[in-house]
Amino acid sequence: MKVLIETERLILRKLEYIDGNDLFEMDSDPEVHLYIENNPVKSIDEIRKVIVMLKKQYAENGIARWAVVEKLTNECIGWSGLKYFDQPLNNHNNFYELGYRFKKKHWGKGFATESSIGILDYGFKNLNIDKIYAITDPKNLNSKKVLTKLGFDFIETFDYEGDPTDWFELKKTTWECKKPNR
Ligand SMILES: CC(C)(COP(=O)(O)OP(=O)(O)OC[C@H]1O[C@@H](n2cnc3c(N)ncnc32)[C@H](O)[C@@H]1OP(=O)(O)O)[C@@H](O)C(=O)NCCC(=O)NCCS
């Protein structure tokens, strides 16, 4: 499988059907889903549908969430990546949003930050994106901490389908002068 990004400890590549069991382990965990709709998956079939959707995004947009594989073990530990939005959200249209999700047993090891640094570099340098956005539940402190470490600015809390949601942005110019090491 083609390696899209390589960092010190991680490889990023497209998600494939063989990742189904790893994604199921991650997405059936209620703690992982606490701040993302709180609706963990119940069957591997739901995961297959997600992979079908991601493959469509890869084909249409050239990019989407990518598998994060730990080099040491070759395990798919979660995903990280840029989603292209062609529908309006919080008065923005046609933009890229950074997202990440990892198996609970791999939290607290710096993998979200490390994979995101690789992705943001790719987005700003290879895709020449001017601004990358991120959204999170205001109570999701782990995610907000990652965004702050990456240099994102909190802009505002907006109403996302009835739920208060925090909106962050990172400018290419900020990344160029303040990119974190890890
Ligand atoms: C959000 C989420 C990805 C954050 O993951 P995380 O593991 O806490 O984030 P990081 O990769 O930044 O790692 C955090 C810690 O690892 C520690 N760490 C350990 N070893 C490290 C290393 N070698 N290098 C860097 N950091 C390391 C860091 O000290 C850091 O803690 P600190 O920020 O207090 O210093 C994770 O909680 C998750 O998957 N949540 C469920 C899904 C979700 O909510 N996604 C976001 C939706 S908006």
Structure description:
The chain is an alpha+beta fold. It has a single domain (5-178), classed as 3-Layer(aba) Sandwich (Aminopeptidase). It has 5 helices and 8 strands. The chain has an 8-stranded mixed β-sheet with strand order 1-2-3-4-5-6-8-7, sandwiched between helices. A hairpin with a 2-residue loop joins strand 7 and strand 8 (163-171). Helix 3 crosses helix 4 (141-150). The two termini are 26 Å apart. 30% of the residues are buried. The model has no long low-confidence stretch (mean pLDDT 97).
Summarize the structure in short.
This protein is an alpha+beta fold. It has helices at 20-27, 44-61, 111-126, 141-150, 172-178; strands spanning 5-6, 10-13, 65-70, 76-85, 95-102, 131-136, 153-160, 163-171.
List the helices and strands and how they pair.
Layout: E1 5-6, E2 10-13, H1 20-27, H2 44-61, E3 65-70, E4 76-85, E5 95-102, H3 111-126, E6 131-136, H4 141-150, E7 153-160, E8 163-171, H5 172-178
Parallel strand pairs: 5-6
Antiparallel strand pairs: 1-2, 2-3, 3-4, 4-5, 6-8, 7-8
Helix pairs in contact: 1-2, 3-4
The site of coenzyme A (COA) has 20 residues, from β5, α3 and α4.
